[in-house]
Amino acid sequence: MKEVILCKYGEIILKGSNKGKFEAALMREMKKRAKYVGGFTVRYNQSTVYVEPENDDVTEEDVDEMYAQAKKVFGFASVTRAAVCEKNMEAISETAREYLPGRLFGKRSFRCEAKRSDKKFPLSSPEIAAQIGGVILSSVPKIKVDLKNPEITVRIEIRDKYAYVHAGQERAAGGIPLGTGGRGLLLLSGGIDSPVAGYMMAKRGLYIEALHFESFPYTSERAREKVLQLGRELTEYCGRIRVHIISLTHIQEELRDNCEEDYFTLLLRRFMMELADRCAKEEDCKCLITGESLGQVASQTLAAINVTDCMSTLPVFRPCIGLDKEEIVERAREIGTFNTAILPYEDCCTVFTPRHPRTQPELEKVEAQEALIDRAALLEEAWESRYTVTLHQFEQ
Ligand code: ATP
Ligand code: MG
Asked: How far apart are CA 210 and CA 189, in angstroms?
């Protein structure tokens, strides 16, 4: 019996005459992953990508790995493993009898649905469902039919060339395919929020490039390594990520020595936004992405965001802006960045933190503080410190 993976399109279905571009991006992503796992071919038809083993050498573990990869591809609404057979009721019943007991093991209730994209198939969908439901009842011990609230749904799909039998279709990553929206520069700290923000924008089709600010020796080698590890974890979804690293050490020392403490963070963040804007332009990124959430900390009040946002000429996307910390944590756990993000290393934003940061800053006062330092020279010096680390996918 042959088992394949069916990946069904999400929003791409709505793309009309643009659909080809989205399908091409989806196929590029799937082929890259199939090549990594090895032994699978990838094709698409009728809003579904079919991932099929090339031969009998493909093991159960390979299918597991390929399935896990498919779940990380943006653009699919659902994925499922399915058994393939000829398009006749005898073959479908036989396949159901052989394949489904394993898939339904331990389940107490099921529902069977059928769908025909081949309308010439002699039985109607309800007839197919009823017949295969009967097969399941006779081959899976103790299981019951529950149409309203089943533990698992079995699906029979009559498609172009073959019939597919599957159970336990899962939600996939959703979103739209990577790269179809252009490129964004993620301000990546070592915290919980920014990796989630990067993930959320990659999900909307952006290739992610990252920028990290450090403040060596106030921030450590281990803090940098933690950020790179977060970046690596994101590559599982986003593909290759180039991380640009800029040193803010001298800027922070100058702020400490010359400016009013209450303004430290805001002044620093204005430098960060301006450097990020410059970096984005150099790297052909058309937006900045941050992990800010409104009101979460002093620098994320509306007034604070107003005095930092204006330092960028590009749109700044803050996908976490309306999420509570709890919700961001939940997402970080889901995408697998949480455990790294909570490692206790310092960030440049936590070096020289003011005891009473301004939460309602006025732009004139902020600018007056900036007049106390040689801002242009400091910017230039920081910019010159920039270096880049490339994180490749499948490298962990
Ligand atoms: P995070 O959990 O992402 O660190 P946070 O809640 O700690 O966020 P801040 O430290 O105020 O909040 O940072 C807000 C945003 O600014 C971050 O989400 C990130 O996008 C950016 N940022 C903060 N520190 C850095 C840094 N060292 N390098 C690059 N970007 C940073
Ligand atoms: Mg932080």
From this structure: 10
CA torsion sign, 239 to 240 to 246 to 247? Answer: positive
Distance CA 293, CA 322 (A): 6
Ligand 1: which of 189, 215, 227, 272 to mutate, most ligand atoms within 8 Å of CB? 189
> What pLDDT is recorded for position 166?
98
Fold match flag (3-171 vs 182-391): no
- Kindly give the distance from the C-alpha atom of residue 339 to the centroid of ligand 1, in angstroms, as a whole number: 17
Burial class (CB in 10 A: 0-12, 13-18, 19+), 42: buried
Ligand nearest to the Cα of 348, by number: 1
Residue type, 21: K
pLDDT of residue 396: 65
Amino acid in position 257: D
* Ligand 1: centre distance to CA 223 (Å): 13
- CATH number for the region 3-171 comes to 3.30.2130.30
Which residues of the chain fall short of a pLDDT of 70? 396
Each domain of the chain, given as residue ranges in start order, spans: 3-171, 182-391
CATH architecture assigned to 182-391: 3-Layer(aba) Sandwich (3.40)
The per-residue pLDDT for 351 is 83
Quote the pLDDT of residue 160: 87
